[in-house]
Amino acid sequence: MCLIPPASQPGECSHARTHHRSKIALRSATAAGTYAWCACGVRKISRFCDGTHKGSGFAPVRVTIAEAKAIAWCGCKHTKNPPYCDGTHGTLT
What we know:
mainly beta, two-stranded antiparallel sheet, two-stranded antiparallel ribbon, disordered N terminus
């Protein structure tokens, strides 16, 4: 599931226009808590929403982590299981 709105040109992936798209999983030890994963890619730092998307039609994906654990957050924004990496980045060109 692509979380980015359709691009202006047919066949163009909107992700090409985002600022922080990664072709790797963003693995980290994550403490218990509620997080807002950046679904747009225009954040200034981190993998979490900083509000930069406001007015763009994008919205973060909120997730609650019950206990501390290692998580592979999606960095490419093409995962079929947001906000987690499912390996889709390996198929992107």
